[in-house]
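RECORD TYPE: inverse folding
INPUT: structure tokens
STRUCTURE:
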């Protein structure tokens, strides 16, 4: 693509140069044949502009370089990106009209944002230029800025030169984090939701056997002696005792409010770490990732980096992928974040909640969203099976856990 771009630009530049040379030849021929003050006046008036255009054609654009400086540090969804750019060149050849903008394509540069990055300068003989630009409402994601598109032209636009100057920079925009008060929860048949306190811990000293490794198993549970002999990962099995681990699960299926689901998970994890508690996290998508016992700021940043780049994907065979997931089976409590409870996920939650203290399903909705009969039926079945279903909107994130306790 870049090669085609250079070929197209070179052909257009040569065409423009030929046009300027042809116009210069016409004016001098007209002056020689016609003679007189008027004809020579036209030639001498045209000659400086034509000479500058011809000289501009041979100005090498490789002499230009660009440096980036981000004026904003940690970016969250909706925050503005502020960037300072510095253009440097080696020569002092006078440049009249210079247009600079971020190169395309990029998902963050829509038509409005592209206008914010476009700047016009009369550079003259300066060797360095600096300017700032701002892109409002940055979307969450891992964004790659490739470079700038530099365009220089003469007085009348006869000769125009364009070059892509590389200036790569990765910009990570994290999900929006809402400050919320987190309280570990547990479910009881008599009183519903309550605070979780002294949970029994899985006894990791009493090994009852080994089995095949499954996604979600901890590295400390791997039986390394068996791996050394067979080159197959085997996991230790322990005495059946209740785990104290709470697992937060994000439904990665596509929806119009997928961003809100990611924000709720990010807010819960941030609140957990700020209170020096632990929680595991499972992104249940077509491409899943799992973080075990998140407790430190460093671990939280690793999860946030993954959440910054996560994209919704249709999930095929949900029960096959997550029905036997060890992260869900071993958890004492499941916090499931979704936008719509499906029969597949209901079957999984019924299965895992029977072996743990239960499951709480946070269903993220918009205030005006209507609920279908099928969704109402599934939510009723979930409640009958001891699964707490809690509909929640974006404005309720801050009080999510206090509302559950009520």
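DESIGNED SEQUENCE:
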């Amino acid at each position: 693509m870049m090669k085609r771009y250079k070929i197209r630009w070179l052909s257009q530049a040569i065409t423009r140069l030929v046009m300027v040379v042809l116009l210069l030849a016409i004016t001098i021929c007209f002056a020689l044949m016609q003679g007189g003050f008027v004809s020579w006046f036209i030639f001498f008036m045209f000659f400086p502009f034509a000479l500058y255009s011809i000289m501009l054609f041979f100005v090498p654009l490789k002499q230009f370089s660009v440096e980036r400086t981000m004026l904003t540090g940690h970016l969250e969804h909706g925050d503005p990106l502020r960037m300072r750019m510095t253009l440097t060149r080696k020569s002092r050849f006078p440049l009249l009209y210079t247009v600079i903008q971020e190169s395309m394509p990029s998902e963050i540069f829509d038509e409005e944002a592209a206008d914010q990055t476009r700047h016009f300068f009369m550079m003259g003989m300066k060797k360095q230029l600096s300017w700032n630009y701002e892109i409002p409402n940055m979307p969450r994601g891992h964004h790659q800025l490739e470079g700038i598109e530099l365009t220089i032209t003469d007085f009348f636009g006869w000769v125009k030169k364009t070059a892509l100057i590389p200036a790569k920079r990765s910009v990570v925009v994290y999900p929006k984090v809402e400050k919320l008060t987190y309280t570990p929860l547990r479910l009881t048949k008599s009183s519903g939701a309550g605070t979780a306190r002294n949970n029994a811990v899985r006894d990791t000293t009493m090994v009852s056997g080994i089995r095949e490794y499954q996604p979600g198993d901890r590295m400390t549970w791997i039986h390394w002696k068996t791996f050394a002999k067979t080159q197959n990962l085997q996991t230790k099995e322990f005495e059946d005792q209740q785990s104290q681990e709470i697992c937060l699960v994000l439904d990665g299926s596509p929806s119009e409010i997928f961003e809100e689901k990611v924000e709720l998970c990010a807010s819960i994890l941030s609140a957990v770490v700020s209170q020096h508690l632990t929680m595991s996290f499972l992104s249940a998508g077509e491409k899943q990732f799992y973080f075990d016992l998140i407790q430190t700021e460093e671990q939280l940043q690793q999860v946030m980096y993954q959440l910054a780049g996560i994209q919704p994907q249709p999930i095929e065979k949900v029960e096959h992928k997550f029905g036997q997931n060890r992260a869900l089976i071993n958890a004492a409590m499941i916090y499931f974040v979704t936008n719509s409870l499906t029969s597949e996920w209901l079957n999984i939650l019924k299965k895992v909640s029977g072996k743990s203290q239960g499951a709480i399903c946070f269903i993220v909705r918009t205030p005006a969203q209507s609920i279908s009969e099928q969704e109402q039926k599934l939510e009723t079945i979930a409640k009958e099976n001891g699964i707490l279903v809690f509909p929640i909107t974006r404005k309720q994130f801050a009080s999510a856990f206090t509302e559950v306790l009520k």
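NOTES: The longest strand covers residues 160-174.
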